[in-house]
Inverse folding.
């Protein structure tokens, strides 16, 4: 939903999401932690990765495997809030596969989830995640790393 017709806000937050998931899928999440505020939160189900250091540790651990992923975003809605703050919600679909291509063979999505993110515009006009929470709706038999990696072990 465009709050008050704020197309610029929708575009900016859509770009934040697109750049974030592109880094995760195409760069193994090497810069993913940079999309968060220093005390940012990445949560999926009951797993909470709190602070940029924990988020970076999660993506470092995630790189140890040979799983390829593609994260698809749909139904993005945004709302401007007080000052440099905004909220977005939508649906994330995750495809995973071993080896060279996440779309190799006929595999169903690994997960379909609702997401909600609280975002803050920082100096320089960049948007960053204050919190990015993913609530799994359907999880297949091929569990995502974000569910399998225990934050307490990082």
């Amino acid at each position: 939903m465009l709050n008050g017709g704020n197309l610029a806000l929708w575009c900016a937050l859509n770009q934040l999401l697109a750049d974030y998931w592109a880094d995760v899928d195409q760069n193994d999440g090497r810069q993913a932690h940079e999309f968060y505020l220093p005390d940012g939160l990445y949560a999926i189900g009951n797993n909470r990765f709190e602070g940029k250091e924990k988020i970076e540790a999660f993506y470092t651990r995630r790189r140890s495997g040979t799983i390829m992923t593609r994260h698809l975003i749909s139904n993005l809605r945004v709302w401007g809030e007080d000052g440099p703050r905004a909220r977005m919600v939508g649906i994330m679909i995750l495809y995973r596969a071993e080896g060279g291509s996440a779309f190799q063979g006929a595999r169903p999505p690994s997960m379909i989830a609702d997401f909600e993110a609280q975002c803050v515009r920082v100096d320089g006009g960049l948007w960053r995640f204050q919190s990015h929470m993913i609530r799994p709706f359907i999880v297949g038999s091929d569990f995502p790393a974000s569910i399998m990696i225990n934050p307490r072990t990082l």
